[in-house]
Amino acid sequence: MTETAPARIWPRLRADRWAVGGATVAALLIVAAAAAPLLTSTDPYTYDLDAVSGSGVPLGTGGGIGADHWLGVEPMTGRDLFAIVLHGARTSLLVGVGATLVAVLIGVAVGATAGFAGGWWDALASRTTDVVFGFPALIFMIALSAVAPPEIPRLLIVVLVVGFFGWPPIARVVRAQTITLRHRTFVVAAVALGARPHQVLWRHILPNLLPTVLVFGTMLIPSMIGAEAALSFLGVGVPPPTPSWGRTIGDAVSWVQLDPMYLLVPGTALFAATLSFNLLGDGLRDALDPKLRELRR
Amino acid sequence: MSDVLRFDGVSVTFGSVRAARDVTFSLRRGRVLALVGESGSGKSVTAMAALGLLPPSATVSGSIRLAAAGPAASAAIAAAAGASASASASASASASADGIGTARGEGGDAAGSIQLASAESVEPASAGSLEGAPAELIGAAPPVLRAVRGGRIGTIFQEPTSAWNPVHTIGAQIAEAITAHRPTPRSALRTCVLALLTETGLDDPSRIARSYPHQLSGGQLQRAMIAMAISCEPDVLIADEPTTALDVTVQAGILALLRRLRDTHGTAILLITHDMGVVADLADDVVVMRAGEVVESAPVAPLFAEPAHAYTSSLLAAVPSLTGPVLTPPASVKTVAGVRDLSVHYGRSVRAVDGVTLDIPAGTVVGLVGESGSGKSTIGRALVGLAPVTSGTVTVDGTDLRRASRRALRAVRSRIGIVFQDPAAALDPRRTIGDSIAEPLVLHRAATDVRGRVASLLDSVRLGASSAGRYPHELSGGQRQRVVIARAIALNPALLIADEPTSALDVSIQAEVLALLADLQREHGFACLFISHDLAVIRAVAHRVAVLHRGKVVEEGATGDVLSSPSHPYTQRLLAAAPVPDPDLQRARRKEAAASL
């Protein structure tokens, strides 16, 4: 909270090797996902039955690694695993970022207004936050996917549902920070100058919440990616044939004896994505709050 | 020979930043050495180097030598240092513990002076060969430093409320400090704690010992902190701004206590302070530091009489004085703002403001003086409609703030400017200073050419229009306060409220800011409520003075009348307690105060 001018943050972030590594991997993943059709000529839907044996096990070493299929193929269908993972990254990142945006929007709106207004609105908002926080989210998501009308795109439902259950932690942190900010002298000064409540909120509270929200949002992305993977793993996420890491991992579990590469490739991608965003978030937090870092040493 | 602690060419660096450079001075038995300087001069860093209490990022060079004073103490150090001779060490430690225990036990019932264990009460045979050899503290092994800290060198910190652990009683914490250095039987410990608390002039020591930190006042906590610091009869006492967080009447008591410790126990005291009045009151020798270097060191009398270095004279000249001419109030009858029978109560028991009536005439600076908790800031907040008023009226520019609609309240606020105590906190860290100054103009749509107005405001506080794009963290404390002042006068206010505007600033910057405020007041002619705890500051800027005590105005009138011939005993006490930056005059005042008791 002390020094938040960008000119001071960048050098500190650049000096943090882990954060730079995380940022690089995250950026690579995003670029790869965006450019997926350019990076691979095969699409993730085309069957290649020549690549699998009669019993469905991929032919060749490492699950069918070769010139045609860089990371092997899917058992039974022979679809290209590289294409599946690459296009799966689109799903994962889209849900991860989209759901995070939903969660941050709701969380900041609820937390900042609750902390700033206080009174009955704070009581109501805080209790609601508690209720949503304690809600058995996974079961609700599974149930909702089962009854959701087919006209609504499943991807949108997943983004909204995962995002909706992600906002309580943000709301809590933002509310606490807002209460602190509200009593800071510069906010009192603005009130004493005749600023209206919305002007105080917009001009002074929100900009000073930005670093906290930025760090929290970055750290939320991996858990959102994980949530999507979990839903798809359970078969209630993005419907087939749209590629998804979670569903591929779910399928691969039953093949792990015969074709371990089938599990290893999407698993590694999921691990790289969550770890890289976590490292970036960690680095951001340290860069924004240098004091904290010295305390941890 | 009587050098107890000698700093020799001490330098402290943090990375590439040099916090202290080649600092040399020595403390003598029974004398107070004041280390004087403004913030960032390296005075605290130098002192903490002696205790090995600097963060790991600091590099210390030079030499800090602690004379081996009493045989008991040197035995303790020898015991700590010589790990191989642990058997004999523990034997000598328990022997000295017995001696202390009985000595304290006897002294405990005789309230007042206690005879702490001294060299005579312990067999000098255990002292060993270390007697006479001074111990080097820079780079000393942790056991040696632990034996020195609290054992040979006691420390008092600035903020007594945060220096105590809130979950333990005062008595338990002092007892812990004693047993850390001298294992003492439980029965003797209690007497010992009570004796120490009595020694520091606390009434009802057994109640104090039972109390938790939050149950005591700042002055009581600081006295108890001194009791803890002297619990092991240290040769040296480091007092880092010991009275800065305290009210002036409480400060006088603490300074008297330190003086008594120096005289009765012969303790060498290293007093770190920025306050020339405190220096004049207590110090025997003075070392003036600036930007990490010693610029002058001399005994107190010649230093004040004929400062050899230009910086010392500028420092002394910047101190506001309680003598000299005062401002005469302008002949004004129109009242710009005022409170009538104002009361602000919190709950049933706390009466922050209790029936105060105060008028602020046009073009007049009204000084509101009082100690912490007297309600002076609450009155300032009530004048902007930010305090929960219990009863009474608050009028600004013809508007009754308690009955005003939201719209009317906003309109009145455009007629009021506020200058806060801490300029760093009063500015939004994420906005440029130009944005901050423009804020009132934008909020009230008061200017068409906002940028031009900001530029001229920056000029009028002598910052220069080019600094509009800078952020608060890029400015010094004094510059930030100028920004806050520019924002406060942006709308040509009818009333300016300045709440301790210089308490967070160094004395030389304080002088500049006060001069700026006075100039702007003359130029714009606004009425001003100037809130301060410092009588000399009030005297320098205010036409009229109101003295506040426990939520009530005890005396009010023209500055010259109130400060030269105070009629209320509280005002008299306040004036007597404020130390003046002149050692001879201060000694005379002390004598006078003692005689009048």
**How many helical stretches of chain A?**
13
CATH class of the domain at 335-564 in chain B: Alpha Beta
Structural class of chain A: mainly alpha
Low-confidence sequence ranges of chain A? none
Describe the structure.
The complex is a heterodimer of chains A (about 300) and B (about 600). Helices cover about 70% and strands about 0% of the residues of chain A. With about 300 residues, chain A is mainly alpha-helical. Chain A is elongated. Chain B has about 600 residues and is of the alpha/beta class. In chain B, the strands form 4 sheets. Chain B has a 6-stranded mixed β-sheet, with helices on both faces. Chain B has a 6-stranded mixed β-sheet with strand order 16-17-18-13-19-20, sandwiched between helices. In chain B, a hairpin with a 3-residue loop joins strand 11 and strand 12 (about 350-360). Chain B is globular, with a radius of gyration of 27 Å. Chains A and B meet through helix 9 and helix 10 of A and helix 15 and helix 17 of B.
Could you outline the blueprint of secondary structure elements for this entry?
The complex is a heterodimer of chains A (297) and B (597).
Chain A: H1 6-15, H2 17-34, H3 36-39, H4 81-117, H5 119-134, H6 137-147, H7 154-164, H8 167-182, H9 185-192, H10 197-233, H11 245-253, H12 260-288, H13 290-296
Helix pairs in contact in A: 1-12, 2-4, 2-12, 4-5, 4-7, 4-8, 4-10, 4-12, 5-8, 8-10, 9-10, 10-11, 10-12, 11-12, 12-13
Chain B: E1 3-14, E2 17-28, E3 32-36, H1 43-51, E4 58-66, H2 71-81, H3 86-109, E5 135-136, H4 142-148, E6 153-156, H5 160-163, H6 170-181, H7 186-199, H8 205-210, H9 218-229, E7 236-240, H10 248-265, E8 268-273, H11 276-282, E9 285-290, E10 293-299, H12 300-305, H13 310-318, E11 335-346, E12 350-361, E13 365-369, H14 376-382, E14 391-396, E15 399-400, H15 406-413, E16 416-419, H16 423-426, H17 433-443, H18 450-460, H19 477-488, E17 495-499, H20 507-524, E18 527-532, H21 535-541, E19 544-549, E20 552-558, H22 559-564, H23 569-577, H24 583-596
Parallel strand pairs in B: 3-8, 3-9, 6-7, 7-8, 13-18, 13-19, 16-17, 17-18
Antiparallel strand pairs in B: 1-2, 1-4, 4-5, 9-10, 11-12, 11-14, 14-15, 19-20
Helix pairs in contact in B: 2-3, 2-4, 3-7, 6-7, 6-9, 7-9, 10-23, 11-24, 13-20, 17-18, 17-19, 18-19, 19-20
